[in-house]
Amino acid sequence: MARRSLQGGGVRAVSAVTEETRVGVRSLNHVAIGVRDLEASLRFYVEGLGMRKTLEKPTSDLTPALMRLPEGTTGTTVFVQGDSRVGQLELVKWNLPQNDEGRPKRPGDFGMGQLSFPVGAEHIGVIHARLVRMGYEVYSDLTTTIVKNYGPVTLFLCEDPDGTQVELIALPSPDVVRRFRAQLNQEDEGR
Q1: For residue range 89-135, what is the model confidence (pLDDT) as tens digits?
Q2: Alpha helix locations (H) across 67-173?
Q3: Residue 144, exposed/middle/buried by CB under 10 A (0-12, 13-18, 19+)?
Q4: Residue 59 CA to chain centroid, in angstroms?
Q5: Domain 114-191 CATH superfamily
Q6: pTM of the model
Q7: Partners of 168 in the beta sheet?
């Protein structure tokens, strides 16, 4: 476990790593989001973003109890994944015993506010144009900005059919990040 302590006006990292604190999660397995229209969501994530379906199944009979859902809730779940095969997005169409058409989360609300997907710099413009052509709400043209101590990123944001904010971002390679940081260090030394 790493702790930070103030000593003499500065911050110092104190390491107290034990076997117990080394035990933890390995990676993100999946993120589940409830959708109003499964086919519309699949069109966005599969046709629009280029993800692929990996599994489609009805929700388990255990799901309502495990997730504290009303008794009698059923649903269909579809997993989609990008080329990296790391992490999946689970799209769930719930069939609740009573209708609940609550609004989706928005940035600034508690809970999930945005999904962010990395894409290759050579593909981000193609995906942007495809989503615009398909009629999805895309917030802006491609935007390139410099992230402090990281480097240049190109991104745009849009909404899926349920109003979930989705960011598509072309990240710099590790070599570009290293060169960017080295340049910053040289500039700092020159001051």
Answers
A1: 999 998 888 765 665 555 556 566 789 999 999 999 999 999 999 99
A2: 124-133
A3: exposed
A4: 23
A5: 2,3-Dihydroxybiphenyl 1,2-Dioxygenase, domain 1 (3.10.180.10)
A6: 0.73
A7: 117, 156
- 4 or 22: which leads in pLDDT: 22
pLDDT at 6: 47
Angstrom distance (rounded) from CA 184 to CA 188: 6
Residue type (1 letter), 151: G
Residue pLDDT, tens place only, 7-55: 445 555 555 666 666 677 777 788 999 899 999 999 999 999 999 999 9
Domain boundaries, the chain: 28-98, 114-191
CB 80 within 8 A of CB 45: yes
Count of beta carbons in the 10 Å neighbourhood of residue 89: 21
| DSSP structure string for 145-189 | EEETTTEEEEEEEEE-TT--EEEEEEPPPHHHHHHHHHHHHHHHH
The stretches of the chain forming alpha helices (DSSP H) are 19-22, 38-42, 63-66, 124-133, 174-189
Per this entry, what is the length of the chain?
A: 191
